[in-house]
Amino acid sequence: MAIENEVKLIGIWSSGFVTRVMIALNLKGVEYEFLPDDLSNKSELLLNSNPVYKKVPVLIHGDKSVCESLVIVQYIDQVWASSGPSILPADPYDRAIVRFWAAYVDDKLTSQIRVLILKEDEKSKAEAAEQLFTALLLLEEAFVKCSKGKSFFGGDTINLLDIALGSCINWLNAMEIITGINFLDKTKTPRLAEWAERFCSAEAAKEVLPEAEKLVEYIKFLRAANRAAAVSSSK
């Protein structure tokens, strides 16, 4: 493969945002090199490739760097348009709807997962859990409309919204292990729960989704580090 076409992905194993990019690359059959980074000691490559936010994921395509997971996924869909299924719908309105809900996932879902991970007081956790359930109920309705009775938000194939929400599944499963709360409850969001099982079994996703059990240990590590930082700052 010529140097100008080489594809590299800077990331960390646990990041759902990085997982999104991996799934998109897998869907398109794109070979890439994964470059794990240490976010506590960020590499020069990461800092130079994403000088604005200085965070993962970063896709390096030849001499170009592309940042932000949903932007990267759409870039992949356009660059490798002739390979694999389309990640974005062809119809402009359908495409707008998918982008709206993908942004909603980041605004209402991933933000509250982060609260559940880092906040240990009962009030914060209860509020975050309530907001997560509200978001998932709306996404259940969105699934019914977008899927049109088929397997995924994209119908027969995985699309941008499948990828955006799918990257959260094992984080929700990890939080269920820790909190005892079943966020993908078949009695409350049956279609979404069934979709989650299908998504996790999809060829493009199953090899790159981080295991819930490993995420549980990672969450414990993050909480311990957060407590230590709080103690240190109070001295």
Automatic annotation (TrEMBL):
Pfam families named among the record's database cross-references: GST_C, GST_N
Cross-referenced CDD domains: GST_C_Tau (cd03185), GST_N_Tau (cd03058)
PROSITE patterns according to UniProt: GST_CTER, GST_NTER
Domain GST N-terminal residue range list: 5-84
Catalyzed reactions: RX + glutathione = an S-substituted glutathione + a halide anion + H(+)
GST C-terminal domain sequence ranges: 91-222
GO MF annotations, alphabetized: glutathione transferase activity
Keywords tagged on the record: Transferase
Gene Ontology CC, one term: cytoplasm
UniProt feature coiled coil, ranges: none
Record-linked InterPro entries: Glutathione-S-Trfase_C-like (IPR010987), Glutathione-S-Trfase_C_sf (IPR036282), Glutathione_S-Trfase (IPR040079), Glutathione_S-Trfase_N (IPR004045), GST_C (IPR004046), GST_C_Tau (IPR045074), Omega/Tau-like (IPR045073), Thioredoxin-like_sf (IPR036249)
UniProt-listed Enzyme Commission number(s): 2.5.1.18
PANTHER family: GLUTATHIONE S-TRANSFERASE, GST, SUPERFAMILY, GST DOMAIN CONTAINING, GLUTATHIONE TRANSFERASE
Annotated family: Belongs to the GST superfamily. Tau family.
Name used for this protein in its record: glutathione transferase
Organism of origin: Dendrobium nobile (Orchid)
